[in-house]
Amino acid sequence: MATERSLILFKPDCIQRRLCGQLLCRIENKGMKLVGMKMLQVTQELAREHYAEHVEKPFYPLLEEFITAAPVIALVVEGPDAIGVMRNLLGTTNGRDAALGTIRGDYGVSRQMNLVHGSDGPEAAAREIDIYFRPEELYDYTPTLGEWVCADDEK
Which domains does the chain have, with CATH numbers? Predict the structure, then answer.
């Protein structure tokens, strides 16, 4: 397993429902290392850049309206197989279908208002991280408890 980075967004519904602390706790408890975090307002331009593959689709106007409606919190997490681990922790896109024990399964009942975004692959993660973070906003450090999260041969 390779150490990876993934972009995670706490979407406007997560902010409005005041779930950020609970979700951040779950990410940290899973063993992911936070290497970047900030709150920001997604603009129409930023939404179009992030969701470029969806801009011409019929549902895009509602997606843009939603993601620009309130601030988001952008995180970069790092860890072994971080992309897959985070996607499993988040659960399937529609909260009604997501398994209990996942973030969306425990807190969501909507397809669009699904609380969080997580990168879906290494290329997407690299592209999305570059959209939301400058290199100097990401931090490389060794967590003091890191050796107790994952064995060396699993990193």
Answer: 3-141 (3.30.70.141)
